[in-house]
Each structure stands twice: as structure tokens, then as C-alpha cells.
Design a protein that fits this description.
The chain has 181 residues and is of the alpha/beta class. It is 40% helix and 17% strand. A six-stranded parallel beta sheet has the order 2-1-3-4-5-6, with helices on one face. Strand 5, helix 7 and strand 6 form a beta-alpha-beta unit. The two termini are 25 Å apart.
């Protein structure tokens, strides 16, 4: 039986260790131990300059992970998420590949303008039964809050279902580590 798999993308100018430094492994272990979630696999891709993150995840990494581990196998067993610019990549990847990801998590997302205005095109290509679940959280003092509100406005226009959470905090590791669960 395959384990659910969570692909977590780091922020701009960070590395694949960012999520580990925030405490994601300890948080996942605690959630699994207390029965809040079934055991799952976390994959932490690293971005390199000039690298197409979507292609790297969907065409190289995902097939490699699922070919060597009892992981994923169906969209409903895969999620993609990211923080800051990684959140922008997660949105781009998850919305363009709903056949691969059943959920998208955006944490203090940095969504670039072309992606923001591509949402309607991406959404039009998704059948109603394949719409990935979407989570967005951001700090109330985050420098990207205004852009996140623009994203929310676009999602509302599309009638795209999502969960939205704003908590006290800034665009910092303190906020992210405090909201890992």
C-alpha cells in the first residue's frame, strides 16, 4: 500500500533544508504519533538557478520517488506545498497538474503576476471532479499580504474552493515554524 506523499518547496534564496530547519520532521512525527494523520512521506526538492521546478518535480523527482518507495500513485495521495516563492511554484505546479496533486498548500505565498493572471486559464482546464484542495495561510503583517489578497480575489472570481487562514506574524521563519501543523 502506498503512503501519502507531500512535496514541500522552499523559499527563494533558500535550500532544501529550510523545511527541516523549521521543524517539519518533528511536527510530522508528532502528528503521526498522536494519530492526527496517517504516516506519510515528505519530499524536499531543492531549486537551482535556471531550473524549471515544475518539470523537475513532475517529470524527474516524482517518478523517481514512486519508482523506489511505496509512495503516492494517485493524485489523492499526493500534495504539493511551499512557502514564499516555493508557494508560488506549488500553486503553478498543482493547478497545472491536478492529475498528479490532489492538494496544494501555500504558506506566505509569493505568486508572481503572470501566474496570478494564468489562474483562470489553468482552472478552465480542470474538470470539476479533479479540483485540488487548496490551503493558504499568511501572517497579518506579512509583506506579501497584499499580493495574497489579490490571489484570494482571483480565486473568488473563479469560485475555486480554498481554506484561508491569517494569523499574527510576519514573513519570517518564526511565523512558518509556528504554523507547520
Amino acid at each position: 500500500s502506498a503512503y501519502p506523499t507531500l512535496y514541500l518547496l522552499h523559499g527563494l534564496a533558500q535550500s532544501d533544508s529550510e523545511w527541516l530547519n523549521l521543524g517539519v520532521a518533528e511536527t510530522a512525527d508528532a502528528l503521526i504519533t498522536r494519530g492526527s494523520t496517517p504516516p506519510f512521506i515528505i519530499v524536499l526538492p531543492g531549486e537551482r538557478t535556471g531550473f524549471d521546478m515544475m518539470a523537475a518535480v513532475t517529470e524527474i523527482l516524482l517518478p523517481e520517488i514512486e519508482g523506489s518507495l511505496p509512495a503516492g500513485g494517485r493524485a489523492e495521495l499526493r500534495a504539493i506545498g511551499g512557502l514564499s516563492r516555493g508557494g508560488g511554484w506549488a500553486l503553478r505546479t498543482g493547478m497545472q497538474r491536478p492529475d498528479l496533486f490532489g492538494a496544494i498548500g501555500l504558506h506566505s505565498p509569493a505568486v508572481i503576476s503572470p501566474d496570478l493572471y494564468s489562474l483562470s486559464t489553468w482552472a478552465a482546464d480542470i474538470s470539476p471532479g479533479s479540483i485540488p484542495r487548496l490551503w493558504v495561510d499568511i501572517g497579518s503583517e506579512d509583506t506579501l499580504l497584499r499580493a495574497a489578497l489579490e490571489l484570494r480575489e482571483q480565486l473568488d472570481k473563479l469560485r475555486w474552493p480554498y481554506t484561508w487562514a491569517v494569523s499574527h506574524g510576519e514573513h519570517t521563519s518564526t511565523y512558518w515554524s509556528g504554523h507547520l501543523e
